[in-house]
Design brief:
By secondary structure, the protein is mostly helical. The chain contains four helices and no strands. The protein has one domain.
C-alpha cells in the first residue's frame, strides 16, 4: 500500500460522521452533511485513482462532483416546497 491508498482509507472513515449526521439531523443539516460526504468521496476517488494508477477513477470522481452539485440543487428546490 502506498500513501495515496492510506489517504483514501482515512477519507472513507471520515464519511461515517457525515452519514450519521445525515441520518439523524434536521433537513438543512442533513443536506450539508450530504454535500460534505460527496466532496469527501470525490477526493477519496481521486486518491484511489492516483494510488491504483487508474485514470478512470478520476473521471468517475469528476462526474460525481458535477452530479452531486446538480442533485443538491434539485433537493433544495424540492425542500423549499415542503418546508
Amino acid at each position: 500500500m502506498n500513501l495515496w491508498l492510506w489517504c483514501a482509507a482515512a477519507l472513507m472513515l471520515a464519511l461515517v460522521p457525515c452519514l450519521l449526521v445525515a441520518a439523524r439531523a434536521a433537513h438543512e443539516d442533513a443536506l450539508l452533511a450530504l454535500q460534505l460526504a460527496s466532496t469527501v468521496t470525490t477526493v477519496a476517488l481521486l486518491a484511489l485513482s492516483q494510488g491504483l494508477v487508474r485514470p478512470v477513477y478520476g473521471t468517475l470522481a469528476l462526474t460525481l462532483s458535477i452530479l452531486s452539485f446538480v442533485g443538491s440543487l434539485t433537493f433544495i428546490r424540492f425542500m423549499e416546497r415542503h418546508v
